[in-house]
Fold this protein.
Amino acid sequence: MIADFFAALFGVTLALILAPFLRTLINRTKARMAGRQGPPLLQPYWSLARLLRKGAVYSTTTTWMFRAGPVVTLATMFGALCLVPFGGNPALLHFEGDVLLMAYLLALGRFFTILAALDTGSSFEGMGANREAFFSALSEPALLLGVAGLGAITGSVSLSGIYGRLGNSAFLGSHLPAMIFILAAFVIVYLTENARIPVDDPTTHLELTMIHEVMVLDHCGVDLAFIEYAGALKLWALGLLITGIVFPVSTGSFWLDAGVSLASMAVLQICVGLVESLMARLKMGRVPLLLGIAFVMSTLWIMWVVR
Amino acid sequence: MTDQLVIALLFLVNLRMFATSRLDSLIRGVALQAFLLVCLAVVSREGALSWEGWTFLSVTGLVKCAVLPVMMTRALRSAGIRREVEPLVGYRVSLFIGLIVTGFSIWAAAQLPMPDGAADPLVVAAALISMITGLFLIVARRKAISQAIGYLAMENGVYVLAPALAVHGPLIVETGVLLDVFVGVFIMGVIILHIRQEFKHIDIDRLSELRD
C-alpha cells in the first residue's frame, strides 16, 4: 500500500517535471519534418521561467473571474493528473467512478477558461470561447463512452482498476477490435482537447481562426505561465489514457514499467508532431464531423463487449 | 481474432462511405470494402480452400479491388468532378444514420435464424451493413457516380452473405454475378461520360426535367 502510494507520487512528480518537455518533442518533430533545426530542448522551461518573472496587466473591464481562470485551470488539471494511473500502478487518488471526476475536472477547468475569456469582453475571445464550448461538448461524450467501454471490458469503474488490468493479455483476443475503436476515439479526443491540428492550430497568427489560443490572448505573465503549464499537464494526463491502452505494462518491475510508460509517451508526442506536419487543419465546419466520427468509434465497442 | 479485426475494419470503411463527400475516397472505400470482404471470405472459412476456391477469390479480388475502381476513377476524371457538394442527406446526418444502421444490422443479424454451421452473426451483420450502405448511397446522393458506387457496395454485401450462409457452390454463382457487375459498371462509365458530354453535369435529379 505504502509502496503503491510512493509509486503514484513518483508518477505525479515525474509528470510535473517532464510535462513541458512534451511540447519540445512535438515542436522538434515538426521542425525536423520541415527541415528546420527547431527550438532548444529546454525552451518550454525557459518560456515558463520568463513568464513567471513577469508581472501581469489586467484590463479594467475584467473582474475576479478573469484572474480565477488560470488558477482554476491549473488546479483542475493537477487534480486530473492525480487520478490517472502511471506505469501500471494505481493513481495517487483512486476510487470507484473516478472516471467521472476526471471528465468533470477537465470540464471545470475549461468552463473557467471560457468564463475568463468572456470576461474580457473581447469579441475575438467570445468567438474562441464559443468554439471551445461547442467542440468540447462533442468530444466529452466520446471520452466518457470510450472509458465506459474500457470499464466494461475490464470490469472496473475506476481508472486505476481499468488501466491496471489492461496489462492482462486475457482482454486482448476477442476484444481487440473494441480496443482499436476506443483507441481511435481517444486519439481524436486527445487532439481536440489539447487544441492540436487537425482541430486547432496552436501556431496560427490569425485570431479569426484560433480556438484555444484566442481565449488566452489577454492573459500575460504568471497567468499565461499557469495556462501553458496546465496545457502541458493536460497533454500528459490525457496522453496516459492512450499510452495505457497501446502499451499496457505489468512486467512487475517498477522501473521497467515507468520506463516503458515514459517511452510510449514520447512516441505519442512524436506521433502528434507527425500528424501536425503531415495534415492540414480541418475547415472549422468539418470539425464536428470529425468529433462525430470519434463519438461513433467510441460506441462501436458495444458490439464486441455486449453480446 | 483476425476475422473480428476484418469485420471491425469493414464497419469502419462503411461508416467512412457514409460520411465522405469526396468521390475518389468513395471509390477507394468501395475497393477497400471489396478487399476486406474477400479477406473475410478467406479467414472465416474453416478448412483449407481448394485451388478452384483460390482462383475464384483472386479473380473476384482483382476485378473488385483493381479493375472496377480504376474504371470508376477514369469515369470520374473524364466527368471532371471531385466531390458531391449538395447531397440529399447531409454528411453528419449520414454518419449518424450509418451508426443507427450498423446497430440495426447487428441486431437483425442476431435475430435471423441461421442454418447449422453458418458463420458468426457479425459476418452476416457486416454483409447487411455493406448492402445497406450501398442502398443508402443510391437513395441519398445525387451524382450518378455515387449511385454506381452504391450499386457496387450492395453487390459486395451480397457477395459476402453467400459464403456466410454456407450456400453450396456460391462461388460459381458469384462469378456469374461478377461478370454482370463488371458489364454494368462498364456501361455506367460510358453512360456517365455521355451524360456529362451532353449536359455538362451528372446530377440525377436534373435529368428528370428533360423534355423531348
About this structure: Chain A has one domain: 2-305. Residues 31 and 125 of chain A are 29 Å apart (CA to CA).
